[in-house]
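My main concern about presentation is that the manuscript never shows what a single data entry looks like. The format is easy to grasp once an entry is in front of the reader. For illustration, here is how one protein appears when written out as sequence plus structure tokens:
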Amino acid sequence: MARVATPGSPAPAASQGSPVATPLPDEPRGRRKIIDLNNVTVTVSSVKYTPPFRFKRRKLTLIKDVSFHAYEGEILGLIGESGAGKSTILRCITGQMKPSAGTVNVAGVDVVHHKNEAIKRFGYVPQLELISVYDHFSALENVYYFGKMYLSGVSDEQIKQRGREVLGILGFKEALMDKKAKHLSGGEKKRVSIAIGMVHDPEILLLDEPTTGLDISLRIQVLNYLKNLNKKLGISVVIVSHDLEIAQYCSRIVLLEKGRVIEFGDPEVLINKLLPCEGRAIKLEVAELNEEIIESIRALPEVKFVIKTGRNDVKIFAEDIDKVMISKIIEHCENINIPIVSITLDRADFTSYYRIKSKLEKEKQKAINSDPANSP
């Protein structure tokens, strides 16, 4: 697809005095860091009210020493629970919030010092389509309308052509492009919102909770279309989400917990690093599962982790996952009179990894907080 020439398109090379950074020597040949955060901390002032009439000003740290990066052409996932710091990081990347410390670079541009230049480099897709999609416009008219605002100096026909191309990649046939947005499904509206974020041909597409409010089939559909955009256009994608499902679509993930990065890297590598036997597991289903049974399995010497994956089934991670270990599990269940429904070899998915990692992190923080040496 031909790129639309716009006033905001990046120049082929940076002239002297330009905010565009020179690629570092240790970066992969032909690739640069499209997103680069180094030791970013955000601290804000807040006022605490104590009855009857006392107000106390205090400092509140939203994120602390956050560092991660992604190379151009990658899909990066920012994953964490509510309050983990995802929205704060997104605001720093888009220039809506200034870090108290650290640096934020987008496509080689320092966001803090060159915000207007940086915002030309990305497209943004908000969580709620009602913010960006007008019901009385068709899908194509929505993309064209926002394209007119983004692309001064570009002909109407070029904008419409760009809209058709992006909507086409997102699965829209001509008839669907001309359909009023109010008659589109939730998944179709989400794809229109994505097309709007793509109309000015950005280098990076930022998406805030793109799967929120969608059922499982539509979530997978939207994520597959994002993967398709990434593959066909080579655009870098940043997905901010609490949905662990996105990990399988990402080149790298940033795992956040209470304003800190607790892990960063390739999802498969992270699984292999944390879990024994490169994430291989035994899946056990019994007639009736309870916490006492889980604890008894967890107490076996070879077992490292046990997580409940269903009403009556668990995944067991051990030092060795083989026939010998399966025999030991069967023997253990027989000894405590637990009927086995099925026992099979399995593998950790990212959800299993996250649950184990999150539990370990919480235990670590609890130990730190309970240590008298860390008391104020």
Remarks:
- Residues 78 and 240 are 5 Å apart (CA to CA).
- Residues 350-370 form the longest helix (21 residues).
